[in-house]
Amino acid sequence: MEREKIVAIVNDFLVNEFEVDGDEITNDANLKNTLGLDSLDYIDMVVVIESNFGVKLGEADFKKMVTFDDFYTTIENKIAEKNA
CA–CA separation, 82 vs 11, rounded Å? Predict the structure, then answer.
């Protein structure tokens, strides 16, 4: 899957499911500060990612993510691993 499609899908569900202001979603924005999600929201996000991309993110994955770019890259890498 192309990165642009990953970014579009992720941004769409963040805006629609988690009510994030789309203007605040930039590659270098801090993921946790921008999203302001609690632990239950992260569980919901894992479910949405799994249903959209067929990959699962764990707690260790989220700990490594600082920016939205990190988030997109992690999903991209998980998809590549799954398809390898």
Answer: 22
Number of domains into which the chain is organized:
1
| DSSP letters spanning 40-72 | HHHHHHHHHHHHHHS----HHHHHH--BHHHHH
Q: What is the pLDDT of residues 4-33, one digit of tens each?
A: 999 999 999 999 988 999 999 999 999 989
* Residue among 11, 58, 64, 53 at smallest CA distance from 34: 11
Q: Tell me the residue range of the domain where 7 lies.
A: 3-83
The two tokens of residue 12 are: 């769409």
One-character DSSP codes across 9-27: HHHHHHHHHH---GGG--T
pLDDT digit string (tens) for 49-60?
999 999 999 989
Domain of residue 46, CATH code: 1.10.1200.10
